[in-house]
Specification:
two-stranded antiparallel ribbon; 4 strands
Length: 181
């Protein structure tokens, strides 16, 4: 079967007509960002992963989305709370990217080291405000430099929305760094 809705081959070689839009999910409005963010995330992930950039910008997508959605994973109807490690890693990743200027590859390596360092993470202090930008805003930018810059602006916007947890995030990173000496 094909996803185009124009039909496909059955196991007997007969053409079968499939309804148009069969493989598209109905639009789901996210209560966190007010858009169909799961679809936009899928599109942005495909975009960033296909870039093959040495800086691995896809890590910033993972961290911005994870922090913006407070550790929730999955489609709106299937939301389940992620572990505290997801929230902590997203905030630490944004901190490293925005405040320390780390590439996605450097953040990815930090996540791996953090995973070896500690298995349980505390709940971050404070609650986020609504970020000014969403994953959908990133997807509206033209592919290439404009979209890459919008991705960075989105990550900065999400990091700013977590201002009440900045001190907590910095303290956690400093604790990690002291333990690595």
């Amino acid at each position: 079967m094909t996803a185009s809705g124009t039909g496909g081959q059955t196991n007997r070689g007969h053409r079968q007509r499939l309804p148009a839009g069969l493989f598209r999910h109905p639009m789901e409005i996210c209560p966190t960002c007010g858009c169909d963010c799961a679809e936009a995330l899928s599109e942005l992930s495909a975009y960033t992963l296909s870039r093959g950039d040495s800086g691995f910008m896809h890590q910033h997508v993972v961290d911005a989305y994870g922090a913006q959605h407070g550790g929730f994973q999955g489609r709106v109807r299937e939301r389940r709370t992620a572990s505290n490690i997801g929230i902590a890693f997203s905030l630490l990743g944004l901190y490293l990217a925005i405040e320390k200027g780390c590439t996605g590859r450097q953040v990815q390596r930090a996540h791996m080291a953090l995973g070896r360092w500690r298995k349980q993470y505390p709940v971050p202090e404070g609650s986020p405000s609504r970020a000014a930008l969403t994953v959908s805003d990133v997807m509206q930018a033209e592919p290439g430099a404009a979209r890459d810059q919008m991705l960075q602006r989105w990550a900065a916007s999400v990091w700013e929305s977590w201002k009440p947890a900045h001190a907590w995030t910095r303290a956690l990173w400093n604790e990690f760094e002291r333990g690595q000496r």
